[in-house]
Every structure is written in C-alpha cells, then in structure tokens.
Design goal:
Layout lengths: L1 E6 L8 H10 L3 E6 L9 H8 L15 H8 L2 E7 L1 H9 L5 H7 L4 E6 L3 H5 L1 H12 L3 E2 L3 E4 L5 E5 L3 H9 L8 E7 L3 E2 L5 E2 L6 H12 L3 E7 L10 E5 L2 H7 L6 E4 L6 E3 L17 E3 L3 H8 L4 E8 L5 H11 L4 E6 L7 E7 L4 E7 H19 L1
Parallel strand pairs: 1-2, 1-3, 3-4, 4-5, 8-11, 8-13, 11-12, 13-16, 16-17
Antiparallel strand pairs: 6-7, 9-10, 14-15, 17-18, 18-19
Helix pairs in contact: 1-2, 1-8, 3-5, 4-7, 9-13
Length: about 375
C-alpha cells in the first residue's frame, strides 16, 4: 500500500521514525511529508534514510510537476502522526497553507490522524469541535494515550506507541456507517432549586464504551448525565441532568443503544419552587420514574439494545440480569454490583439469551470487550 505519512510540529515527532520503519517492514511504500515545524524536532536526513526517499516540503519548488496533486493522488492511505492542535484546526477549516494540507485536500485516500498535545489542549472545546467535525467527514481520529507528557505533567494527549498506531491503522471497522447511542453518568432529581436526589456514578464506564465504539468506526452520540470524567473527542455529547431530560435526549434512532447511565428509580412528585429552609421541615413524596430503556426498545425494536443491571451483595446478579433481559426487550445485559460505582477496575456479568460470561479488568478493557461482543452478536443475528 502507498502510505503518505504526514508529520506535524510537536515534540512527539521523533516517534514518527518508528512508524516509518514499522510501515516499511510491513511491506508498505512510505512517502514522508513533514511540515516545516516538524523539521525543527526531527531532521530531514533521518527521515530520508528511513523512508528511502528524498523529502522536499516546498510547495513552490518544481511547480511544473504539481507536487501536491501527485502526492495526493498517489496515496492510498494518509496518516498524520503526530497531529498537533494547530494542524487539526487547519484541517477542519480546510486551510491549505503548506504542501501537506494541499496534498490531503487533493486526495481521495482514507485519512487517519493520531493527535498528540498537552492534556488541556486535547480537552479544549475548540479541539473537541475540530475532531468531531473531522470525524463527521470520515476522517479516522485515534484517541491519544494517557501518560507522561512534556515536562512533569501526565494525562491524555500522549502520542500512542507505534504498535498501537499500526493496529489502529489496519484494524477492521465493524461499525463503520453504524450509529451508537450511549448513556452515561447518574441522573439527579430536584428536591428544590439547589438540592437533588442523585447517585455516585461517575459515568466512566459509559464514556469508555463510547470511546471504544468510536474507535471501531461508529458514529457515537454520548448522552451524559452529570459526568465526572472527561469525554472522548470525536463523539457528539449531549448533557442532561434529570430522568426527563435523559428521556428527551434519547429520542433518536440508532443501530445500537447502550444504557450505561445510572437512572434514578424515583423522582420528587412536586419539587419545591425555591430553596427550602431548615425550619420548614421536609417530607418527600416520591413517584416512580419511567423505564427508559424498555420504552426505547418498544419504540425501536430493530435497535440492538444493551442494558445494565445493578444489584447489591444480597441479590443474585445472574438471576436479576436474565430477568431484565426479557423485561426490557434488550439483546444483552451487563450486570454489576454497587462496588463498581466510581471504581477504576470492575467485574461484570455479561448475559445474553444463550450465554453468560464474566469479565474483569479496567473499565476501558471491559468496554472494548463489550463493544467487540456487540459486533459479534450483530453479525450472528444476521
């Protein structure tokens, strides 16, 4: 395969040497195209030696050959690694101000970007909007890794290791063209204007599921109820607070829905229109909330549904999960206990109509297994 490897101007540019070597060892024809700023971090001779090709980044040299068109048309795959925040902004806006951007715009090849930047830059709303826009245009965006960054800081924004980028580059995309709705977090039901009934769900499990589904090619809408964890880039995020707001936000069709949010079973019948004073006393009249996933599945029977079952230590997890499988009309139920709330690692019971499986590990590991299981169940169902 003819691969055009773009390198932009970040400290992680040195890792591109490993990418050139790995791609060539896999038998691919690699053309390296660094930006001017990238060459401040890594030398042209190094890249020429590894790729076996000379490098000329001047847009106006050898104009007669129309280099940007030739580079764009010859490429069968374009990889940008690392991709800086500035590059993502220029690409989202279509600003062709150097040879690399001109070649990208002149190409019909698949484009994959591996961002690398400081944590605050990656989580900035401007970057998130640019990533979301690029994904909507079919650009594949790899989530950056978490770890040590330039200086003493650590967090999401680190360029993934070469092996991980290669795996992402050539992995199958079973959910390409499919839509996912993922709910996450915990709802809050108002008592008055400042108090509420809530729960301790951070939303991390749902966020990791949204991240895993996006990495497998899905177009993801993440409906977050009072999330306490950063959301992944490149997914649409709808923020909600209460059960009623969550129900309204869920009113969209999808190929797959994963109901990972911790939804309140009760709400206040008549929330106080103001701030209650201690001297007034308090008596709460609670009324049951709707079963949102059961209602959704009855209205969207073609959707592949995944529900969660949360029990305490006194209940039989498998029995509860299997009952919910039928009561809610879903295809899979993920059962866990109250110990999972807010934890980094967890253990869950995955129950389908014909199997039961125990999964244990970090929430991002379980999310990846769950999303792969959804893919296999959908294939099996067809």
């Amino acid at each position: 395969m003819r691969v055009l490897l773009g390198i932009t101007g970040g400290i992680a540019a040195y890792k591109a040497t490993g990418l050139v070597r790995a791609l060539r060892e896999l038998g691919h024809d690699v053309t390296v195209l660094p930006t001017e700023n990238a060459l401040r971090f890594i030398g042209k001779p190094t890249l020429e030696a590894l790729s076996g090709k000379s490098i000329d980044i001047d847009l106006f040299s050898d104009v007669a050959s129309v280099k940007h068109v030739e580079l764009g048309q010859q490429a069968e795959l374009i990889l940008i690694a690392p991709a800086t925040a500035a590059f993502l902004g220029r690409m989202a806006a279509g600003i062709a101000d150097d040879l690399l951007m001109n070649a990208i715009l002149a190409s019909n090849a698949e484009v994959v970007v591996a961002p690398a930047m400081h944590t605050e830059m990656w989580l900035n709303k401007a970057t998130a909007a640019n990533v979301s826009l690029l994904k909507s245009r079919g650009v594949r965006v790899m989530e950056p890794a978490s770890g040590r960054l330039t200086g003493a800081d650590s967090g999401p924004g680190r360029l993934p290791e070469v092996e991980d980028i290669i795996n992402f580059l050539f992995q199958e995309k079973p959910f390409r063209g499919k839509t996912f709705v993922v709910t996450a977090g915990g709802t809050r039901e108002p008592i008055d204007e400042v108090r509420f009934i809530g729960n301790s769900s951070s939303g991390r499990m749902g966020v990791e599921i949204a991240r895993a589904a996006s990495a497998m090619g899905a177009t993801v809408t993440l409906i977050g109820a009072n999330l306490q964890t950063p959301v992944p880039g490149g997914v649409e995020v709808r923020e909600v607070g209460s059960v009623d707001e969550l129900e309204q936000a869920m009113d969209i069709p999808a190929d797959v829905i994963v109901m990972a949010a911790a939804v309140s079973d009760f709400k206040i019948d008549n929330p106080y229109p103001g701030k209650l004073r201690r001297s007034q006393g308090l008596k709460l009249d609670l009324v049951p909330t709707k079963d949102l996933i059961a209602n959704y599945m009855s209205q969207h029977p073609e959707t592949f549904g995944v529900a969660y079952a949360l029990v305490d230590e006194s209940q039989d997890l498998e029995e509860v999960a299997r009952q919910k499988l039928w009561d809610k009309g879903v295809n899979l139920v993920v059962g866990n206990t109250t110990r999972a709330l807010g934890s980094q690692d967890t253990s869950v019971l995955l129950v389908s109509r014909d199997s039961t499986e125990t999964l244990a590990g970090s929430k991002d590991e379980i999310a990846k297994v769950l999303v792969n299981r959804i893919a296999s169940e959908i294939v099996k169902g067809h």
